[in-house]
Request: fold
Amino acid sequence: MSSPSPSSAVSASASTSPSAASTAAAQTTLHVIYAQHDLVDTKMDTEGQGVNKPVVRKKHILDALQRAASGNGGGNITFQALTEPAPSLKPAERIHAPQMVELFATGFARWAALGDEGRDLYFSSAGRVDPPDWSELVPSQCAPRDPYQRPGNNVHSEVNYYAQDRMVPLTAHTSTILHHDLAVTETAVAAILEGTQKLVYACTTQPGHHSGRESYGGYCFINQAALATALLSDKLGKVALLDVDYHAGNGSMALFYRDPQVLFASLHASPDIEYPYCCGYSDQTGEGEGEGSTINVPLGKGTNWATYQPELARVLERVKTFGAKALVVSLGVDTLAGDPECAPLAGFDLHAPDYDAMGGMIRALGLPTIVVQEGGYLLPQAGETVRHFLVGATKDDVAEAKQ
Ligand SMILES: [Zn+2]
Reply:
């Protein structure tokens, strides 16, 4: 399968520039924003650990969307390829600790500069091996959060403090990918705030919903969905963040737990049976001024659409009554039946048509919406699943456009 070519992507983008977009077009267009860089750097295909292949997933997603756009009825999908990364990761400090953001930006380079004498082998993903493997920086342990611990001023201390687990290595490509992902998020937010688009898919590479203010893990670095939510809320006031990834979005929940301006709602596998194991319980509903603005819906092993649909409908009713001015969706497709990351422990039992319905239900809210990519490990079906969700999200508009 081929990826969208830069030329076609750019021309599609040009046709939907702000000056050309009418109000009607804004209501009938799924606008896909993605970074062009890693589609041409095959070294990045190996990013991740185990079944986590974020660069490959992104390729499958873009391929599926491009096929949909070139087929019958796909004319309402446009693409915007970004070739320039964000100049700095500092905008992520809106939600993350500055020292953690700096770790993402420069941590691997600082670690590499320590040389063989300065690096501790326990921080290599391969551990104590001969010869050493210096390709992935992971913590040697994950520090429990108590009041007496803090990050020191060296990269080994920083990864030990900020990382929740050893599944998220910093590599030579991490900083580059995150700079490009940040550009995608900022462009998506601008499109919504400027009113040039109503439905934007921010096709970021790395997921983010497990990352909190001072923590990252579960394959996540910058919490792009939470950042988009915060930036929208700064301008619009009330915003809803809906998390439909299979795993509880512990980072997103923590970031908005006391924020009355953000409704955070998550449907996920029960923490009793799945990562992150210690967050996402139904009695976690927010606190302080944010009491009541967090909704957790833990679901059991093998949850199917018959169980999922009424729970989602109930959550969407809460989004309506909350009075959100915009919606951000953390879209994980690891709820798909047979997902290799989830099936060994529990797994859900959702299928392609269910994602059409899910997208349609969310689209029916009628809110300006940014969909941000989270997990999904059954490749290449993950790409088609995202397409089903996003096409479902435009189904009503397609019907209207044909009338
Ligand atoms: Zn997940």
